[in-house]
Amino acid sequence: MRYELYYWPSIQGRGEFVRLALEDAGADYADVARSPKGMTAMMRMMESRALERPPFAPPFLKAGKLVIAQTANILLYLGPRLDLVPRNEPARLWAHQLQLTIADCVAEAHDTHHPISGGLYYEDQKNAARKRAADFTSERMPKFLDYFEGILQRNGKGSGYLLGKNVSYVDLSLFQMVEGLRYAFPHTMKRLEPTHSRTVELHDRVAARPRLARYLDSPRRIPFNQDGIFRHYPELDR
Prior knowledge:
238 residues; alpha+beta; Glutathione S-transferase Yfyf (Class Pi), Chain A, domain 2; four-stranded mixed beta sheet; globular
């Protein structure tokens, strides 16, 4: 099946978690909004009254007649179809639970630079951003990283991934979470990484996967920038 991914064409954002799964699996897909007239097509889909179940916002995935929105929901659908999650229900639910936890961390990272409103410029909420970022870097970032480090530790030897011996879409997402935190908060991550060695090793293991390594080194991988979820403001990384 050829999948169609709809997401903003100039940022990694939440759509990148879906891209990583599609790229790692070697899936046949189109990144629609990055093609000529793709943004027009995406907006037309969102505004269409013909869709019985319209998405609230990108990312969303078209798979045959299905239109599926929300990152974790898309990955819940794609996981078994791309062999990126075990097919038994307890494992699929566990993967989904972990993905939702990553989504929580991503949302909190976003709110460090837009703590009051997404409709305001960062410069209009810098004081609140400093307070929010201070709490995130001192309390929340360690808590999220501790959680995933603990899961990897609990899995034991020979289980280099979150669900055990085999890679899953959640491992790809944890890789992206670490990448984003490194970009946005390099000083904090430099301090935290030595005590989260299993998470760092998982990140490196995922980055070395052949298809993913080729993707990360290609123009298809949009660089981090100051319009995405993860943004680097030195004054927020102390």
